[in-house]
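Example 3.2
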Amino acid sequence: MTDPLLAAYDAEVRTAELTTPEPGTTLDRDAPVTRILGARRGFVAGPPDLGVAGASLDALIARQVRFFAARGEAFEWKTRAHDRPADLPDHLLAAGFAPEETETVLIAPLDAISPSAPPPPDVTIREASGEADLRRIAHLSATIFGSDEAATLRDLLARTRADHGTTVHVVAESAGHFVSAARLELVGGTTFAGLWGGATLPAFRGRGLYRALVAHRAATARTRGARYLQVDALPPSRPILQRLGFTAVTTTTPYVWSPA
């Protein structure tokens, strides 16, 4: 591996996934993977090289399926394109997992991010605070994605109660309504912060809000001592992020197993 950004991502972010629970979650180790419990669905994280292949890999996958089947819970196994063994996705498919949309992992040193133009004059960018704002974020998410508003709110409230200042929600507000929202998550024990959860009402897309929310979160991450920002980006976001100074280092595809 020659890419220093990918090397830092593997050494810091991937290690934190295995060892440091996010707010509201707990970790259950089953070497070489870690099961993450307490989020909206289960999650299995592994190192860049699982160190198993063939029948041993199938046995590892089967153990995770049995564990979550006993809980009646769907779970996600997140893969990266550079991971080993390279045929992990094939084994997951054979075990009944379904792939979700592939995203690009982009990373930027904070001092390399280009400044963004200010938001439109009818829009205010600010950090959310309090339960009322979280309710408005849950409503915005449900409006845009058709998600379960009550479940989203429960997740937001649970994470906030367990959080110790590592998560910052940033919103764009116009005429008293939230029109866009996203969050910054500092990755504990690392020099990374992640950008997650971007959502913008269709009528406000193409007006620079995505860039403005990235810029605000970058400034916040800088004041919190982070050195790098990391994003799992869908195709529409990738060119915007690259223009802001982000570099694509790999891709990531979630594979999801669900109870019958």
